[in-house]
């Protein structure tokens, strides 16, 4: 937990804005501030939820906006690697499953942008920050999908890693984020299972199909481990996010949990994971794994992954192509509002 002074320097005393972005009444005094701060800390300590209208330190709000926006962007960009296979799905059943999954990801993005708006963020501004590279999305979506086996491996490993990350977020201290995560996790569970089921089917197929699965696993394993972020020693914001109960576990803890869950699944599937150092450590009660190439992660985060430019270009084009839809929806909403106002006037 940051010290009282540290928090007070970044509170809404500086901006004069309340939790909903509205100006606080001028009579708000330092005593009110101190009381609001004490209430915030009590809610966190009691493991209760902070709601949009509650007072919160400005740094808590900024941390959440950054995290939730990055999460929303990841859901939206995450539609692209698998979306590329919608027109090439090998059967109607696989196409229907994949379509449902990709649509779920769009829905996840929308819940999360809404959660971000409850913190006072502006949706158009978030999109602008994404397409201009000022806000990030998960590095994993900058890798290409080379065969239909990639659809299965993304479901199994990428959605599987997302579940490890997101289940604890259902208890995140910020109410709208925690509630969005409950529904999202249910859908992620379906995503993980459809991926695993697809891989099981392919492993029971031809030698060529098995080779596609092995190749996809080899390509996605290490990037999946990187999804949990840098090692704890290089993750300076983790301690504060944990003190605020935005995060519940460190990056390394979650990564370890993912490895422990996934190794037996790989055995059941009959594939080996591309890590010669991967073995059970009876003393620790966990699997040990080999070193992760953190240079690769920072390269991909910096924009030098295999598909960064393509992902952003596609998103930018989609945003531009959707301009007329946004204009039409706004015009329609304005027309309805005007009609409702006239109606209310007549009724009054
Ligand atoms: Fe998702
Ligand atoms: Fe998913």
TrEMBL record:
<feature type="compositionally biased region" description="Basic and acidic residues">
    <location>
        <begin position="11"/>
        <end position="26"/>
    </location>
</feature>
<dbReference type="InterPro" id="IPR052703">
    <property type="entry name" value="Aromatic_CoA_ox/epox"/>
</dbReference>
<dbReference type="Pfam" id="PF05138">
    <property type="entry name" value="PaaA_PaaC"/>
</dbReference>
<dbReference type="InterPro" id="IPR011881">
    <property type="entry name" value="PaaA"/>
</dbReference>
<protein>
    <submittedName>
        <fullName>Ring-1,2-phenylacetyl-CoA epoxidase subunit PaaA</fullName>
    </submittedName>
</protein>
<dbReference type="InterPro" id="IPR012347">
    <property type="entry name" value="Ferritin-like"/>
</dbReference>
<feature type="region of interest" description="Disordered">
    <location>
        <begin position="1"/>
        <end position="30"/>
    </location>
</feature>
<dbReference type="InterPro" id="IPR007814">
    <property type="entry name" value="PaaA_PaaC"/>
</dbReference>
<dbReference type="InterPro" id="IPR009078">
    <property type="entry name" value="Ferritin-like_SF"/>
</dbReference>
